[in-house]
Amino acid sequence: MAGSKKQAGEQGSLVLPTHIGIIMDGNGRWAQKRFLPRSAGHRAGAQNFRTITRYCSKIGIKYLTVYAFSTENWSRPMEEVGALMRLFKEYLEEALRDFMDENIRVRFIGDVSAFPSELQELIQEVEEASAPKTGMVLNLAMNYGGRAEITRAAKAFAQDVAQGKAKPEDLTEEGFSRYLYTGGQPDPDLIIRPSGEERLSNFLLWQSAYAEFVYFDILWPDFKTKDLDQAIAIYSSRQRRFGGV
Ligand code: IPE
Ligand code: IPE
Ligand code: MG
User: Fold this and answer.
1) How high is the pLDDT of residue 101?
2) Is 60 exceeded by the pLDDT of residue 125?
3) What is the residue extent of each domain of the chain?
4) Does CATH place domain 15-145+188-237 in 2.40.50.100?
5) Would the CB of 229 count as within 6 Å of ligand 2?
6) Residue 11 has pLDDT above 90, yes or no
């Protein structure tokens, strides 16, 4: 990885991504290394999510999408899923206070109807309370899967066709993307995955078509603001061609 010591937001020459996606991975291994239960790793990861989110807002990132729970994560032991649900509830309550002060708008992407009703109520509360906010948009990907999102969009479009509201021959890529959870938002420019894994794991499949990927051999709870600076510096040094020359 090209190591640059540039500080994000400090140097005019740095190109800031408009939209960053983060796959918050490695909580379980972080805990395992410390002989702690996996839930302790999730707690440390959630704490780090707050730190990194506030930092992104501070340095002027406009959109941040974080992968918190995938459609595949339900396959984990019931105990772990339960611990995650409790943590989400706790952190959403805290986030409500925290992010409101920072003018952050919180949105949820994913099928939240599968979550316990208490959590769903909180999700709605957070979304409504933060809707008037004008700062960074934070998309929380919860029970999110890229394939599920595309399938859902296809169904919604088919329904519009059946109701005479849309015509198949008029569908464009841009038009289709409006049916996605992220409809109306710019695609991610930079996707960061800590933990050493080098895969998308069903994250923003459609939207990541031309995203720059940066992988880190650092577990998510250990991922610091300086690592985010490094990711941005790497992004800034890349040449994006979008198929051109
Ligand atoms: C990511 O950390 C958090 C969630 C998927 C909820 P993991 O729990 O996947 O951590 P590792 O990959 O097992 O270390
Ligand atoms: C991706 O991590 C999902 C989240 C970080 C929420 P996983 O740990 O679930 O992905 P795999 O299983 O390593 O691909
Ligand atoms: Mg993992």
Assistant:
1) 86
2) yes
3) 15-145+188-237
4) no
5) no
6) no
Active site residue 25: yes
The 10s digit of each residue's pLDDT in 178-205 is: 999 999 999 999 999 999 999 999 999 9
Cα–ligand 2 centroid distance for 65 (angstroms): 15
CB 214 within 8 A of CB 231: yes
Q: Can you tell me the mean pLDDT for 118-144?
A: 96
- Cα 194 off chain centre by: 13
What mean pLDDT comes out for the span 98-122?
94
Q: Any residues with CB less than 8 A from the CB of 205 and at least 6 apart, and which?
A: 146, 147, 149, 150
Active site residue 170: no
- Of the candidates 27, 48, 73, 222, the residue annotated as catalytic is 73
Tell me how far the alpha carbon of residue 146 lies from the centroid of ligand 3, in angstroms: 17
Residue of the nearest CA to atom 8 in ligand 2? Answer: 25
Residue 137 has, within 13 A of its CA and on its CB side, a CA count of: 20
